[in-house]
Design goal:
heterodimer; A: hypothetical protein PF0899 fold; three-stranded mixed β-sheet; 26% helix; B: 221 residues; 8 strands; 21% strand
Chain lengths: 113, 221
């Protein structure tokens, strides 16, 4: 349950960005969460509700955009991994550990007033 | 003011990642090879570390260790018996170590006096995966008592590891542990993963583990 630590960081970064933009409040935050990030969406939502209390984000809606895992297959190029239990190219079955997306834990944007 | 969108595009772990990058530069400058040991609770991290510290000292190396736990300094007391400098990091309930905890607990140590630093992370198969501690090598432990399919259940942690150790191999027969199946599962979630099987208790496999460490430290230059 490290989602509370992440939610606190999220609120801090969003708060700084909102102040830098002279905003009165944050109405929404958009977060990218990779399938291989180890972050549980439900736990993050729960922690977010706790972390926003008494901040510019108090009324903000949390939008989570999941990011799939993409790996580089030496033969086929960048391909999407259908299963986290098997790091093999879905087209030619070559194994690969070269992960290009899926580890993201990022604040993409905020909507402010 | 009408609603508007502000692009931010920042990692939530950027603060940790920046501290870890600074630590990594300090470790490289001091010639300290840093190993982050991760696993679930009870896989034998502390016994492995105790034996590793002793064996490295016997070979004339100068290892040190930081050991993370939610509470108690039991592990630091155990590890200090090896004669190596050891400090306990109490996380007070936090489920993983973060880079700034490592940095704070190194204060007063001259890194250049230590050619190895081991960081025993909190026993946790999920949260420890996300936090870079500035290590050169992340080693995940899988004990024969846990079952062969642990890597499939926790792909994130096993995928971020640079090497795996299968521990408690003296119990493998009693547990009907299928090591070929375990190795297949480890490499399914992390192709090419180096794997060492050992028993810290009997010493079987320890030489291979130490040789692996020494070669990785050597190749770091």
């Amino acid at each position: 349950m490290h989602e509370l630590s992440l939610a606190v960081q999220l609120v801090q970064i969003a708060d700084e960005a909102a102040r830098a933009a002279d905003a009165k409040r944050v109405t929404a935050v958009v977060v990218k969460i990779g399938a291989l990030s180890g972050v549980a969406e439900d736990a993050l939502r729960f922690a977010f509700d706790v972390a926003v209390a008494d901040t510019l984000l108090a009324q903000a809606r949390l939008e989570i955009h999941p990011v799939s895992v993409k790996v580089v297959c030496p033969r086929c190029g960048i391909v999407e991994l259908p299963s986290l239990q098997r790091f093999c190219c879905p087209q030619c079955d070559t194994s690969t550990a070269d992960v290009r997306t899926g580890r993201e834990i990022e604040l993409e944007s905020i909507e402010v007033e | 003011m009408p609603p508007r969108i502000v692009q931010v595009r920042q990692g939530l772990l950027k603060k940790n990642d920046a501290i870890a990058a600074a630590l990594r530069a300090d470790f490289a400058a001091a010639g300290t090879f840093v190993v982050n040991l991760v696993s679930g609770p009870g896989t034998g991290k502390t016994l492995l570390l105790e034996r590793t510290l002793s064996a490295l000292r016997d070979r004339g190396r100068r290892p040190a260790a930081l050991v993370g736990d939610l509470a108690t300094d039991n592990d630091a007391v155990r590890l200090a018996r090896s004669g190596a400098p050891v400090r306990q990091i109490n996380t007070h309930g936090l489920c993983h170590l973060e880079a700034d905890m490592v940095g704070r607990h190194l204060q007063g140590w001259n890194l250049a006096e230590h050619n190895y630093l081991f960081v025993e992370n909190v026993g946790n198969l999920v949260c420890t995966a996300s936090y870079d501690l500035g290590e050169s090598l992340r080693v995940v432990l899988l004990s024969v008592t846990e079952g062969e399919d642990k890597p499939l259940k926790y792909p994130t942690l096993f995928n971020t590891a640079d090497a795996a150790i299968i521990t408690k191999c003296d119990l493998a027969t009693a547990c009907e542990f299928d090591s070929a199946e375990a190795e297949r599962n480890l490499r399914a979630v992390r192709p090419g993963l180096p794997i060492v099987s050992l028993s810290a208790k009997t010493g079987d496999g320890m030489d291979e583990w130490l040789a692996f460490l020494e070669s990785r430290r050597g190749s770091e230059g």
